[in-house]
Amino acid sequence: xxxxxxxxxxxxxxxxxxxxxxxxxxxxxxxxxxxxxxxxxxxxxxxxxxxxxxxxxxxxxxxxxxxxxxxxxxxxxxxxxxxxxxxxxxxxxxxxxxxxxxxxxxxxxxxxxxxxxxxxxxxxxxxxxxxxxxxxxxxxxxxxxxxxxxxxxxxxxxxxxxxxxxxxxxxxxxxxxxxxxxxxxxxxxxxxxxxxxxxxxxxxxxxxxxxxxxxxxxxxxxxxxxxxxxxxxxxxxxxxxxxxxxxxxxxxxxxxxxxxxxxxxxxxxxxxxxxxxxxxxxxxxxxxxxxxxxxxxxxxxxxxxxxxxxxxxxxxxxxxxxxxxxxxxxxxxxxxxxxxxxxxxxxxxxxxxxxxxxxxxxxxxxxxxxxxxxxxxxxxxxxxxxxxxxxxxxxxxxxxxxxxxxxxxxxxxxxxxxxxxxxxxxxxxxxxxxxxxxxxxxxxxxxxxxxxxxxxxxxx
Amino acid sequence: xxxxxxxxxxxxxxxxxxxxxxxxxxxxxxxxxxxxxxxxxxxxxxxxxxxxxxxxxxxxxxxxxxxxxxxxxxxxxxxxxxxxxxxxxxxxxxxxxxxxxxxxxxxxxxxxxxxxxxxxxxxxxxxxxxxxxxxxxxxxxxxxxxxxxxxxxxxxxxxxxxxxxxxxxxxxxxxxxxxxxxxxxxxxxxxxxxxxxxxxxxxxxxxxxxxxxxxxxxxxxxxxxxxxxxxxxxxxxxxxxxxxxxxxxxxxxxxxxxxxxxxxxxxxxxxxxxxxxxxxxxxxxxxxxxxxxxxxxxxxxxxxxxxxxxxxxxxxxxxxxxxxxxxxxxxxxxxxxxxxxxxxxxxxxxxxxxxxxxxxxxxxxxxxxxxxxxxxxxxxxxxxxxxxxxxxxxxxxxxxxxxxxxxxxxxxxxxxxxxxxxxxxxxxxxxxxxxxxxxxxxxxxxxxxxxxxxxxxxxx
Lengths: 460, 460
Known about the structure:
globular, five-stranded mixed β-sheet, alpha+beta, eight-stranded mixed β-sheet, homodimer, 17 helices
């Protein structure tokens, strides 16, 4: 009964080489997160659907993977009562009757749920990171998966712009360590709201921002056209024009905006936040370009203050990291007034950038330093204590398990990228020696069996 | 609209402290696995149900979590055709119609699927480890979860007993590093088969082993009684008695068994394997007790050679690690003749043992070394470059984000276990100084702001 094995579309196996590269990324971000006082939590893969539904919009609800209740979930259901009158079924209601749980869609909602559920155990500001897979029933396509890792770092319980600064520092340090040159763009939702207010359309902040968002691609005239088509007046567009045409230094931009936003309390508050943050950035010193970009609109529906986006300077792939401040994330679970700020690193895109720029360190994934060839059982028993002693010094060592042809054993070393090989036969055993060969330089040395320090030094 | 948040029964949130402890376990095993040439792979959380069904017995099929197909899965189904004639539905068939995917039940079947699917890309023997969650719709109870991590290390593609040796060495080193004293018990399925053959019941190896398995708990007489009740003759039980009453050295046990098993080729082959393995163990030198235990029967339905089980000597909690050799795991996916051997570490039980024996290293989970108190914006801007310089030396540093009362900032340091605090106000800034206090010893020192090396040395 042969089954041809495969995996669900949109999911991936990660090979040893891929895992070595992915772990390099995860280990790098974790090390940086910890240096700023952020610690890891994990939440369950499955959440109650009541926790997830309604948090990601109507489209998001459809993209949730639902888990069938265990036991006999069908016997309790009257399927006919779920007919939609068009020959089908009311899908959302029927799946709610059959499925009480769903797979996590992101790490933000579970984080909010975690903070509310464990409120009394936590110290605030609560600084956590979380690196776990999420699942979305998106149509699979190049670069879009149904299971992928998110890598989130958030602080909750303080309004301080020092937390925004920490995230800026974390971004800079992570990408410096990874060897990726980046541009960090910052916007502020309150400034966008202020712009909408001063041009007379306080309710159209989304329309205005969506239009502004295209500034880079289509230019000011086309953006103006789009705003007009959304019912925004020519006068209002004229008010916005000087802000959208802003260039030059951050200080200059902030000063120019202060003039335009003079009539909006909200807008001025956003400017104050930006000025405080850029003041901190100047004091701390940051090793990557950081600029204000009013066209940055990501996550507009829940960010309330700073908005961040990071682009790789040497590889066009869209945003590789982004986030912002949300004033009321835990409100959906009954805990109002908790302000938080966070960013998310896109592991898959960072992987692609490192691959494209050839920036992964050489030798990732080749774990073993020395392979002892297997000549026969006696030779193996001869080298076993040597192998154990080398491992005792922390050196990864393998013994080829079978007395196969040497060609095959060499091939194994070659394919695994093992740099040293030792062939000890009966003559070495008789002399109490161990031969070790550097497979790339060809250099070969002979050691007394017990001189493990010398062998270790040769392998170093 | 307040929702009281909770998580599905049988699942868990892991706090920062728990994650620090869990990562300590995972990092320890990973480091050891790598030292023996094993590298990490990951497989998707969801597998096609065709991959999973029928691999874990009828009971296992019921414990699979099934994922509802996305889109409109109900419209394609004629529910009435799935009625079971007793007022309910044929649950297995109907869930198969609605769900094409299920959550991974263990790491072994996905590993077998991986090896077959990626056969041409792999070098054999293929040595991998895998640490990922698995899901089972078991009834939740103390110590049994619906989502839990497995931590598996396997080698596939060689019959060599050297691989069994490696697993023995890995077990010894992992638990030595963790500070848990263990007993490693070894059995061999072929020996059990041989015993069934020599007593005349070659088909009753399961009945016989299940009975032998209770030897520790109920004693020989009750075991004999159970075998008789299974239709095994008094003469057969008499043949087995000397083997079951074996004690003393491993060499003595092996010799005694060789006499009893003389009439079974399979049994003698099993003895040969055990002798070869114990020969290697003697050559390599192992720092924990390793003994033959004929009553060890775990995983009998798919192990074909060695069977392993590890018990903590100082805490009664059942097996904390186990595994064995399986000759034909990939056969279910159409690739016969691949022999493999592997073990699985029980992370939850190991966590419980380390907790009970108080063996977790002190200070796990307290990431931050130094907290700068927040006096006001000016003081923060004064310390920002110092904090950045210390982080540049790899030291985890936080700045309290708000100018709160010092009591609150002290409490924060205390609850996070931060050992050093720096309070820099306007007078320190005027003098260009930085004060640092060791919160446990009370020692306080003053440094020039730029003398980061001296500050780092004080924190070390």
